[in-house]
């Protein structure tokens, strides 16, 4: 035990001195338990009597030469220090009960990072209903005025631009990477609550699947990680190696260490739409409601052969292009040549599966999609033009004032979910009739905005 203890202490001391010499000009501080994890873990996991054999693939020699993953990780974080900014937003939301006035102004903070083209990428909810936006770079006391160039509340992403040339001096941009695999490590960089300086937390990818985006009330792909994502982290990058693996945007309330980041395919889809159209265009959908066909009796009823798999169409949005081409009780067997399973999933990466809605959402607006369906026992192929759909009752209305009409002392407003949310999270308890809206009000249970 004495030999092992002395070796561990020597490993910590030498590794700490090497890292301190490399990063003495950085604001990154290493905790005692984080110094040289690869070497320390290697020593502790070595067989008895092998404590003196420190020269392994993650030894001091490889650290000094700079060709191991530890040096690469901290180099990536050092790169992020020159690209991650803190965002200060002053916003004022509309009062849907009194649509001619706004609610009191509030000040919030968030994070963002620089991408090619002298642009800053952040979350839409960081700048929602903004009056003005300021940004501050790491290590600088000066705040610069920023303008919102494009915002997509559906995917919770926004692009900011800063006119000041002084702000961009010494700034570096981050490149977008790819979707990380399960158990890969990412570093979330941002400005969460609890302090004013930059924060770096480490996490492991635990799940990749479509998830409900709280801000936009949509179902898009998201990456679940176990890193701490707190208010203020929103908009900060999750870095893997030297590229961005996603953007932190929400966590799961009531759970511990469950955070979510927006993956790169969703980010690229948003940026490409803005660059091609000059504004946010949205994510496509077929406008279908489907149910699984895992029940044997259901499959027999619709004359599905044993080798066929798919999902049953139970409802079609009348505003979608699919309303003219598809019918209720059609069975979707494949999408763009990819077979759809009985539970509605398609193959994804290494023995993973994901709902086929993700394939639809990654399509560009007005792009064609080929569907293979089963109708009345016969297989058919149908080409459909996909496009974004707006619900009849808008789910969110940010960055604009609500419309209203006053007649004979009565105030008429369009029916929207933001209006219903003014009654609290239990707005669904409202009783609708042909003359008025009578709501069961259960106290001042208003939704909380971060």
Q: Oligomerization state of this entry?
A: single chain
The share of residues in extended strands comes to 25-35%
The overall strand count is 24
Mean pLDDT rating:
79
The number of helical elements comes to: 11
Coarse structural class: alpha+beta
Radius of gyration: 26 Å
Unreliable stretches: 1-72, 431-450
Strand line-up in the sheet with most strands: 1-2-3-6-5-4
N-C termini distance: 50 Å
Q: How is the biggest beta sheet arranged? A: 6 strands, antiparallel, barrel
Shape: globular
Characterize the structure shown.
The structure is a single chain. With 450 residues, the protein is α+β, with helices and mostly antiparallel strands. Helices cover 20% and strands 32% of the residues. It is built from 11 helices and 24 strands. It has a 6-stranded antiparallel beta barrel with strand order 1-2-3-6-5-4. Strands 7-8-9-12-11-10 form a 6-stranded antiparallel β-barrel. Strands 13, 14, 15, 16, 19 and 20 form a 6-stranded antiparallel beta sheet that branches. Helix 1 packs antiparallel against helix 2. The N terminus and C terminus are likely disordered.
């Amino acid at each position: 035990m004495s030999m092992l203890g002395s070796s561990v202490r020597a490993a910590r001391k030498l590794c700490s001195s090497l890292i301190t010499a490399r990063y003495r000009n950085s604001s990154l501080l290493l905790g005692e338990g984080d110094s040289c994890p690869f070497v320390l873990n290697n020593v502790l996991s070595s067989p008895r009597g092998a404590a003196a054999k420190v020269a392994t693939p993650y030894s001091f020699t490889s650290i000094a030469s700079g060709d191991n993953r530890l040096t690469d990780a901290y180099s990536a974080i050092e790169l992020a220090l020159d690209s991650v900014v803190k965002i200060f937003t002053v916003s004022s939301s509309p009062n849907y009960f009194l649509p001619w006035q706004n609610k009191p102004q509030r000040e919030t903070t968030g994070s963002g990072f620089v991408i090619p083209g002298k642009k800053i990428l952040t979350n839409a909810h960081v700048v929602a209903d903004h009056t003005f936006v300021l940004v501050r770079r790491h290590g600088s006391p000066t705040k610069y005025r920023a303008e919102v160039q494009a915002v997509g509340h559906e995917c919770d992403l926004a692009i900011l631009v800063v006119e000041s040339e002084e702000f961009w001096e010494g700034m570096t941009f981050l490149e977008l990477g790819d979707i990380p695999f399960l158990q890969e490590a990412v570093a979330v960089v941002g400005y969460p609550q609890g302090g004013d300086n930059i924060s770096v937390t480490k996490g492991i990818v635990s799940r990749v699947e479509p998830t409900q985006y709280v801000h936009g009330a949509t179902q898009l792909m998201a990456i679940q990680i176990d890193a701490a994502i707190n208010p203020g982290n929103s908009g900060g990058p999750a870095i893997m190696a030297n590229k961005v693996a996603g953007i932190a945007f929400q966590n799961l309330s009531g759970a511990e260490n469950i955070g979510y980041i927006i993956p790169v395919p969703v980010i690229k889809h948003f940026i490409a739409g803005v660059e091609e159209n000059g504004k946010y265009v949205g994510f496509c959908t077929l406008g279908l409601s489907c149910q699984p066909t895992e029940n044997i009796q259901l499959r027999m009823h619709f004359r599905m052969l044993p080798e066929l798999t798919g999902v049953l169409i139970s409802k079609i949005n009348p505003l979608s292009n699919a309303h003219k081409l598809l019918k209720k009780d059609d069975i979707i067997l494949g999408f763009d040549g990819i077979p759809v399973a009985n539970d509605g999933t398609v193959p994804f990466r290494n023995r993973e599966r994901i709902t086929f809605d993700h394939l639809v959402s990654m399509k560009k607006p007005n792009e064609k999609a080929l569907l293979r369906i089963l109708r009345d026992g016969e297989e058919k192929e149908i080409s459909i033009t996909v496009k974004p759909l707006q619900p009849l009752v808008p789910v969110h209305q940010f960055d604009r004032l609500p419309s209203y009409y006053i007649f004979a002392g009565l105030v008429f407003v369009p029916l929207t979910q933001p209006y219903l949310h003014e009654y609290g999270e239990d707005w669904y308890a409202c009783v609708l009739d042909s003359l008025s809206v009578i709501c069961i009000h259960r106290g001042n249970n208003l939704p909380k905005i971060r």
